[in-house]
Amino acid sequence: MLKPGIEVAEVVDSRGSRFLLKCDEVYYAVDRSVAGIVRSLQEDGGGPRSRQRIYAEYGVAAVDLDQYVLEHFPASWRVGTPTAKTRSPLLFQFRILSGRPLQVMARGLGWLFHPAVAALAGVLSLLACGWSFARFRPDHWGIALHRPHEAWYLLGLVVLGILVHELGHASALVRFGGTSRGIGLGIYWGFPTFFADVTGAWVLPDRRKVVVDIAGLYFQLLYLGIVSAAGVAMGATLALGVVMATVPLMMHTLNPALKFDGYWVLNDFFGLNNLHRDIRDRLVLLLRRAAGKPGRAVSIVEVGGVAAFAGLCVYQFYFMASNAWSGLARFANLRGIGSMQAGELVVNGAMLLLFTAVSIMLAKRAATSVSQVVSGVRHGC
């Protein structure tokens, strides 16, 4: 009746007791009755004993059980059906590290999540970064951009830091008993990005999920501390360049407007299933109240949260659109084009197309969100 290997886990956290079902590497939030029925069916494959238990505990008669499963359970749970299709936020995925090598590496780094070790390592890393700022003037690192080989070193070290960031997410998951399915490269909103598959974090309590969410930034901070200390010791101003190029990336990933780390931190800290949908629902409530339509009152905290999120979304859109406009202005400068090297011309043209495409996608997403809000305000849903 049901596929073999379906797993049901009970998670106890700030939201109380909840159940997650895993089938074909896809997670589903289910209620207690569904979890109980699935567990009973797994014991003897839907035989007489499990049917009697299901009837006694959940009121589903044995003769009606097959029809109940057909009507209430997703088709992908049943034997002989294809795996459920899930929509990935990544346009393209390529695994770089997975399997046993990743698990061994992540397990070996688990000690870094001991509270005392994390506090000490974080403070030392901040001091090392501050030391590099005190040792080198902030404008020194810009010289590297005029030296081709140092510019490549700078890019390589920044990219390595991003990989360390993803290793942090995977290591935190493994530290709490989960399994990371890999670290790889993908395309998200038109931009190449590294990712860590930490889907297994869904079965963790909320507090541990938050640790997994911020572990990437924690590892990246440790990486910057090591780079800064090495740079000061060797007198390499390039280390400060790595810090100054990486910190904005770390800040950018905290913006919850897109599904970066900041989104997941807020989502898990407040025990939500979908932060964006929750913000939208509260905005609908706020607008309905403003229009004098029925609906529950919205607290000042909720109003502040909606306003802050709206501001971050505007910033995200402005960031994308301004970069597209800057690329257009530079590309449209005929005299500038004439003096460009062929490679520089291609790069600027590619960046123009990229930022323009991303801006169009953001505008489309914004239009869809506005349409959903208007519909909610009109119809109360």
Give structural notes.
The protein has 381 residues and is mainly α. It folds into 3 domains: 7-77; 93-269, no CATH class; 275-379. It is 62% helix and 10% strand. The strands form 2 sheets. The chain has a 3-stranded antiparallel beta sheet, covered by helices on one side. A hairpin with a 2-residue loop joins strand 1 and strand 2 (16-23). Helix 4 crosses helix 6 (148-175) and helix 7 runs antiparallel to helix 8. The longest helix is centred in the C-terminal third of the chain and has 38 residues, at 342-379. It is globular, with a radius of gyration of 25 Å.
Structure summary:
The chain has 13 helices and 6 strands. With 381 residues, the protein is mainly alpha-helical.
Distance between the termini: 36 Å
Stretches where pLDDT is under 50 for at least 5 consecutive residues are: 334-339
Total number of strands: 6
> Structural class of the secondary structure composition?
mainly alpha
Strand content: 5-15%
Total tally of structural domains: 3
